[in-house]
Amino acid sequence: MALRKRPEESRPRSGPSASGTRLWTWLMIPGTLWMTGFLIASLLLVATLAFGTTDALGNPRFGLNFENIAAMTDPAYRAVLLRSLGYALLTCLICLVVAYPVAYAIALHGGRFKNLLIAAIVVPFFANYLVRMYGWSVVLSDDGPLLKVLRAVGLADSDTKILQTGTGVIAGLVYGFIVFMIIPLYAALERMDVSLIEAGRDLYGGPLRTFFFVTLPATRQGAMAGCVLVLLPAMGDFVSAQLMGGPDQIMIGNLIQDKFFQGQNWPLGSALTMLMMAVLFIGVLGYLRRTRKDEAEATR
């Protein structure tokens, strides 16, 4: 015999919690509208300017010119875009490999020092990005402490260089954005049921197999979120390539900066910006599609 719900059980909840939720919703609306409005306005401005031209003095003029769009087929621009994408993907991979043990150790073995350890990782990130990159370039310089140690142990010689190479650019990107990978992984590991790891050890018989068959699938959402958070800024970064790379390591961010400031060609810079954003949009779309698929599978 089915039990009938009491009238008070079927009523929607009301009280302090409901009113508090409505209050926070109303408080979020102004900031959300402000940020969304400026985002849409800036995107429309850049997209419109991509079809413009420049006058004799280099000032941008709106119009309907497809030369800037056609210029995207230039092999030189395509090479820079592919290099930027390759650097960003490699940065994601290195950050994932380095961040997983750090997040795992803090989340599962940090004990009462978890918050302190996370603060030790996050607080230096609030320092100015340019200042941090200058400091990192000193560490990686030819006379810096890293190469001195490597030469002392015989892993490098006097001709070994890190700066002005692709390795230096990737090292700068990893150093600059690895915190974006650690935090989502830490959050995913913190939410994971520890008993799954213990059961995995009983089933698979080793920590490595347990990680790949239990921990990694359980924290896949955190890893995917971290990859997106690293890929987006790494793709458009220009500071690392400028300070730690050479002419053969420029990224699309450097190219856009040059078109806007040194080259005084804002329409072409806008077209390059839209090209970069199109590539990033494809990546974000794939992430959202995969997230929806995982949520659908979880609710079955």
Proportion of residues in extended strands: under 5%
Low-confidence stretches: 1-14
Structural class by sheet pairing and helices: mainly alpha
Spatial extent as radius of gyration: 25 Å
What's the end-to-end separation, in Å? 28 Å
What does the largest sheet look like?
Answer: 2 strands, antiparallel
In short:
By secondary structure, this protein is an all-alpha fold. It has helices at about 5-10, 15-50, 65-70, 75-110, 115-120, 130-140, 145-150, 165-175, 180-190, 195-205, 205-220, 220-235, 240-245, 250-260, 265-300, and strands spanning about 55, 60.
Explain what the structure shows.
- The chain is an all-alpha fold and 300 residues long.
- Helix content is 73%, strand content 1%.
- It is built from 15 helices and two strands.
- A two-stranded antiparallel sheet has the order 1-2.
- A hairpin with a 5-residue loop joins strand 1 and strand 2.
- Helix 9 packs antiparallel against helix 12, helix 10 packs across helix 11 (207-218) and helix 12 (220-236) packs antiparallel against helix 15 (266-298).
- The longest helix has 35 residues, at 75-109.
- The model is unreliable at 1-14 (pLDDT under 50).
